């Protein structure tokens, strides 16, 4: 591990390292959110609002961070979330994250707009747990082919992103002149020249392609901001009836990613889904949407005894894993935390991000007096709105 990475004591340190390495337009694409970024900030603030009630005089000389996700062992209550277009920040970043997840014994989720294909990831880390996130593109035949490719490549679960009828208005991108197809202009050229390390990597490897979109007929090749380009390809007519067709096509675990309402979660269960991810797309879509940790308890109350409930958004500390678990999530998905790591230091940076989260989780478990993930319950939450106030769960 490089000296710089060894000096990263938390995820925010990795974020700053990534910011120093990347051109502003690219860093802001990963770091930013929609409009005033209220939801982006509140995802984080929701974790900071939660207070813990630790147990004392418990033998915590040994703690066990293992759990089961979809009935399969995971060494942490954590999976790597899908993040699209990350090869623009570091060539090969998708593969680096997939390999890191395998090394840590946790699942990895490949995004539809990744810069590595479904098949390439499978070939590289075929013995690892792999999930595929489906963007519901307007070409129904093409999206069904994506599902078929993921099935043939042995992916364990299909995560259908359902909070993306159109893309959110991410205002950092047009201000930075960050467009697709990427073309240099006077603004971003000056930005790029001040980041020689990133520029050298791109010169060696070339600008990345969204490999899963090979053969897709885009509605326009007009230069525009990233959000507009993606939103133009989404199927805004996708509904519960269309989801039924995907359920018929996919024989394995099916998850809906982007659910914040308990009634939507109940409907997902009735349709045959195995999982919901309480998510607001990391604050990148609807600004003003509820923080995911705030939405979690009602979803858990509705379906937590019947299906897997996961959570993403705002996870930056190992304590966040414990808080999410105490409020009913079986595990969390992390996107930006490991993304900052890989952008800062490649595969070693991704490892450092997971080392930080893992060690912080272990420390928090010891300080809270719990020896295993199974012992984490709502009695650890002090906030009055949870209704527990230190009482052990039934």
Short description:
By secondary structure, this protein is α/β, with parallel strands linked by helices. 44% of the residues lie in helices and 12% in strands.
Give the topology, please.
Blueprint: H1 3-6, H2 11-21, H3 24-31, H4 38-49, E1 67-69, E2 72-74, E3 78-80, H5 93-104, E4 108-111, H6 118-124, E5 130-134, H7 140-152, E6 157-161, H8 172-176, E7 179-180, H9 186-193, H10 196-205, E8 224-225, H11 226-233, H12 240-249, E9 253-259, H13 262-271, E10 275-278, H14 292-303, E11 308-312, H15 318-326, E12 331-334, H16 336-368
Parallel strand pairs: 3-12, 4-5, 5-6, 6-9, 9-10, 10-11, 11-12
Antiparallel strand pairs: 1-2, 7-8
Helix pairs in contact: 2-16, 5-16, 13-14, 15-16
Fold and architecture overview:
- It is a single chain.
- By secondary structure, the chain is an alpha/beta fold.
- Helices cover 44% and strands 12% of the residues.
- The protein has 16 helices and twelve strands.
- It has helices spanning 3-6, 11-21, 24-31, 38-49, 93-104, 118-124, 140-152, 172-176, 186-193, 196-205, 226-233, 240-249, 262-271, 292-303, 318-326, 336-368; strands spanning 67-69, 72-74, 78-80, 108-111, 130-134, 157-161, 179-180, 224-225, 253-259, 275-278, 308-312, 331-334.
- The protein has an eight-stranded parallel beta sheet with strand order 3-12-11-10-9-6-5-4. A two-stranded antiparallel ribbon has the order 1-2. A two-stranded antiparallel ribbon has the order 7-8.
- Helix 13 links the parallel strand 9 (253-259) and strand 10 (275-278).
- The longest helix is centred in the last third of the chain and has 33 residues, at 336-368.
- It is globular.
- Residues 386-394 have low confidence and may be disordered.
């Amino acid at each position: 591990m490089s000296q710089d990475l060894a000096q990263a004591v938390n995820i925010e340190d990795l974020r700053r390292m990534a910011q120093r390495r990347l051109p502003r337009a690219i860093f802001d694409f990963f770091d930013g959110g929609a409009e005033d970024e209220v939801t982006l900030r509140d995802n984080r603030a929701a974790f900071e609002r939660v207070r813990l009630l630790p147990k004392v005089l418990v033998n915590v000389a040994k703690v066990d961070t293992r759990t089961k996700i979809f009935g399969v062992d995971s060494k942490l209550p954590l999976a790597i979330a899908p993040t699209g277009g990350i090869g623009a920040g570091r060539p090969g970043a998708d593969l680096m994250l997939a390999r890191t997840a395998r090394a840590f014994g946790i699942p990895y989720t490949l995004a539809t707009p990744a810069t590595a294909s479904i098949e390439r990831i499978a070939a590289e880390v075929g013995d690892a747990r792999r999930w595929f996130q489906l963007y519901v593109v307007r070409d129904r035949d093409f999206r069904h082919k994506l599902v078929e490719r993921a099935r043939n490549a042995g992916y364990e679960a299909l995560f259908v992103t359902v909070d993306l009828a159109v893309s959110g208005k991410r205002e950092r991108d047009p201000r930075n002149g960050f467009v697709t197809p990427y073309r240099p202009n006077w603004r971003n050229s000056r930005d790029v020249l001040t980041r020689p390390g990133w520029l050298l990597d791109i010169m060696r490897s070339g600008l990345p392609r969204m490999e899963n979109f090979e053969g897709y007929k885009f509605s326009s090749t007009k230069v525009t901001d990233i959000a507009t380009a993606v939103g133009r390809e989404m199927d805004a007519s996708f509904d519960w009836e269309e989801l039924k067709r995907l359920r018929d096509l996919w024989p394995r675990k099916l998850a809906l990613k982007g659910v914040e309402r308990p009634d939507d979660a109940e409907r997902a269960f009735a349709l045959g889904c195995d999982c919901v991810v309480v998510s607001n797309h990391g604050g990148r879509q609807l600004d003003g949407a509820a923080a995911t940790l705030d939405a979690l308890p009602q979803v858990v109350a509705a379906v937590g005894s019947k299906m897997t409930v996961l959570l993403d958004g705002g996870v930056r500390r190992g304590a966040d894993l414990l808080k999410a678990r105490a409020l009913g999530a079986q595990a969390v998905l992390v996107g930006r935390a490991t993304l900052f790591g890989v952008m800062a230091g490649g595969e070693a940076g991704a490892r450092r991000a997971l080392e930080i989260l893992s060690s912080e989780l272990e420390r928090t478990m010891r300080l809270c007096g719990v020896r295993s993930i199974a012992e984490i319950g709502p009695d650890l939450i002090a906030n009055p709105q949870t209704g527990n106030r230190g009482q052990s769960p039934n």
